[in-house]
Amino acid sequence: MSIPAKLGKYDILRELGQGAMGIVYEGRDPVIDRRVAIKTLKREQLERSEADEVIARFKREAQAAGRLNHPNVVAIYEYGEASGAQADGTAFIAMEFVQGRELKDAFDADERIALPMVGRIMDQLLDALEHAHRNGVTHRDIKPANIILLPDGTVKVADFGVARIESSNLTQAGTVMGTPSYMSPEQFMGQTVDGRSDLFSAGVVLYQMLTGEKPFTGALTTIMHKVLKEDPPWPSVLNVHVSPRVDAVVRRAMAKRPEDRFGSAHEFRQALDAALSGAADDNDATMVNLAEPDATALSSADATTVTGSVQPPAAATSARPSVPPAASIGTPAAPAIPSASSRGPLAGALVVALLALGAGAWWLTHDTAPGRPAPAAEVAQAATQPAASPAAPHAGMDPGVAIISAIGLADPGDPRLTHDRQALTRAMRDDARRQILEKAVALFVDPKSVNAHYDVLQSRLLDRGSDFIQAVLEESPPELGKDGLMAGEVRAAVRVREVQKSLNQMSQEERVDFIRNNGDPKIAVGVTSRWSDGDPAVPAQRSPLAENTLKQHIQGFGFRTWSDDPSAGQNADFSIDSEVRFKRLTARLAASGVVIEKVVLTSWTVRCIDRKTGEEVYLNTEMPEGLSWASEEKALADIGKRVGDQFSRNFFLSHFHFMARKVTLQITGLPGEEMAGSLLREIASMRSVLATDVKSLGSDRAEFVVDLSGGLTDVAQNVQAGILLPLSRKLGRNCLSIASSSPDAVTLDLDPACTAPDVVARLQTLPPAALIEAAPSRRETVIHDPELRKRISI
Q1: Can you give the pLDDT at residue 712?
Q2: Nearby residues of 190 by Cβ (< 8 Å), 6 or more positions away
Q3: Is 165 exposed, middle or buried (0-12, 13-18, 19+ CB in 10 A)?
Q4: How many other β-carbons are positioned within 10 Å of the β-carbon of residue 588?
Q5: pLDDT, mean of residues 318-322
Q6: More confident position, 261 or 515
Q7: Residue 662 pairs with which residues in a beta bridge?
Q8: How far, in Å, CA of 742 to CA of 715, rounded?
């Protein structure tokens, strides 16, 4: 794509780099002859449903940073929207042209920074944050890539693109953006953040400068767990030149609770200056190693500065001396290429597998940005245990959110995509998002029912990613497979509870009769009764008769029940509670003088509580009319039946939290790692597999850990139906068979006949079995070649 000659009033000189959503140019303001950096955003590069919000956020960046006027903040000059043949639909921000290098570059180059230099960088960073916070702006993404070291010693804080203006009605609490290793606990929890979140991130940067290590590393879910639950080894443990006084400053800056941190950036700076002045002499040339072994990020930072290499800083003695001059400046930084480790275990394994299959890496040096941030990016308590199942809620995790991975596919042979690499990548990622939501649907709905209702699901749910995907957590670069399709993994936090509610709404409003997955809800029941004219101080009495009648109704659905009490009820999925009030009426028959007594109902309350969330999913206080009984016993028996009539099997299945089951798949009899990689790609693509990880890989066997949906039936049946049958249909034979199984592990044997070249070729050159099994609408969307569509149609 050619470079536009102008954007607004600015002359475009050259391209500096490409970010997740647009291109950054070097420009010139012809009116005052000033060089500027111009960050752009094209509407056509965004998903249609997200375009307005992303552009509003982009404009908000200019509004936020434009309010700031500080020597340590990259200045924003103007926001504009360009028009013309080359720039139609392009929004842009003109900002200060900064010549320097990112602090991240120093880490990447394994450079060493003296303790006095650490203090001078932090002083300027905290000065910038103090100014921003006083003006109501929270940065939200403080990290080394946004800290620019200028040759004259100035530190600039860049990219207030995810800043929150407290007075803006465009930003809502619960929005999460940032880079995981530097994010505060409240960001991960999806809570409202303020300046103390920036102080936490600044504390992480300080920790890294002091020790050469990031305090929170690993896969994304591991980082989340560490940030929320664990303290790292404090700096003095890793660097003997750091004093306990500095440890105390870092510990307070990185406190889990915002109220336990420094109250302001100014307070942080004062404490750090005092600790450093007593920790080392200003002439101390002791350095620390600044290795950065891994990096996991939600999104690549847009290039906003011109960067270059800088010599290691020399010691200096003034209170705030200069950062040493750069050896060379003015060289644009190339976009970073995420490593396999930075893309997570599944993505890394897939890259290895695809390369082992001879797949060509496509545009790896051009299109590596992990993608657009989700419009409602809210990782609500996304993970608190490193080995937790993505769809299995546990202490501290929102049970309505699951982390799901999917492999998106796109056809480079589609004429609409052949000459537009961005469109091809976008099509692949859009397909991945739809598959993520399809996997969420498969938690609740039988696969055949998904295909039968695919078109309505696509229009009402699958194409509305912004309504259900809280955050796109990771996106791997595209890889071209031997099947000719472009593939890439996307991992996201999904509001599965909202997906379930949408399915329920479709069933009610559009009469869509989904076949639900089988579940095993545990239901606690409690029915209490009292006499309306009785002593109000006497508590209502439990009615075993009514409860037993209610249990029989619920057990008829195949669900487990017991009488509700504090000990048993804690393990229930649902609890049904009913309270009824009776009154005795007597009448004397005039003819015979016989006194007749009847029991009548004066009030009733029936409610059902989802014990996982505490949500009241059913409430009925409308009393049935005209009910009377000859005795209290008959009244209670009938009440138990009438309470049961309020609930159906589908009611519970419509609200039940179907959870993925973590299962270890051991495959034996493999001819080598190449086939293991092919099988991994197949398994990860399956609709019933929410996430996949490689446990071990050998020459003749492999172990994968998968999060498997399909209800709570026998795990071997789920593996057979969700993985083995689709693969057998693709290969035309049963290549994998179940040798043994337990509740959390299944061993699969590979038929030696399936190592024949023709079977291996079919495995590698045909599209994934998940696509072959998909609804025709999806196959037509992904595959352009009608002959290939016909070939894989079942």
Answers
A1: 62
A2: 174, 175, 176, 378, 379, 380, 381, 398, 470
A3: middle
A4: 9
A5: 34
A6: 261
A7: 707
A8: 8
List 493's β-bridge partners, or say none. Answer: 403, 471
Is the separation of the CB atoms in 219 and 211 below 8 Å? no
User: Is residue 630 predicted with pLDDT exceeding 80?
Assistant: yes
Q: Distance between CA atoms of 510 and 526, rounded to whole angstroms? A: 34
Q: What is the pLDDT of residues 637-654, one digit of tens each?
A: 999 999 999 998 888 888
| Residue 330 Ramachandran class (φ > 0 left, ψ -120 to 50 alpha, else beta) | left
User: In angstroms, rounded to a whole number, what is the distance separating the alpha carbons of residues 221 and 473?
Assistant: 10
- In 264-364, which residue ranges form alpha helices assigned H by DSSP? 265-279, 344-356
Burial status of residue 596 (CB atoms within 10 A of its CB: 0-12, 13-18, 19 or more): exposed
Give pTM, 2 decimals: 0.53
Residue 153 neighbours by CB distance under 10 Å? 18
Beta bridge partners, 697, equal 702
- Give me the catalytic one of 105, 123, 127, 141: 141
**DSSP state for residue 65 in the 8-state scheme:** H
> What does the alpha-carbon distance between residue 727 and residue 595 come to, in Å, rounded to a whole number?
76
Nearest partner of 374 among 286, 474, 458, judged by Cα: 474
Instruction: Report whether 356 contacts 676 (CB < 8 A).
Output: no
Q: Is 430 a catalytic residue?
A: no
Contact 166/233 with Cβ under 8 angstroms? no
pLDDT at 83: 65
Q: Which residue shows structure tokens 């209502």?
A: 540
Range list of β-strands (E), 495-594: 522-531, 541-542, 560-563, 574-588
The mean of the pLDDT values for the chain is: 78
Q: How far apart are CA 313 and CA 29, in angstroms?
A: 33
Q: What integer is the mean pLDDT of 337-341?
A: 31
Distance CA(707)–CA(440), nearest Å, equals 12
Termini Cα distance of the chain: 41
Which residue do the tokens 């080394």 mark?
A: 144
Question: For the segment 469-523, what is each residue's pLDDT rounded down to a tens digit?
Answer: 988 888 888 899 999 999 999 999 999 989 999 998 888 787 788 888 877 788 9
What separation in angstroms does the CA of 115 have from each of 145, 280, 360, 695?
20, 7, 45, 41
Total length of the chain? 794
329 three-state secondary structure: coil
Cα dihedral 409, 411, 414, 419 in deg (nearest 10): 90
Place of tokens 């930003």: 171
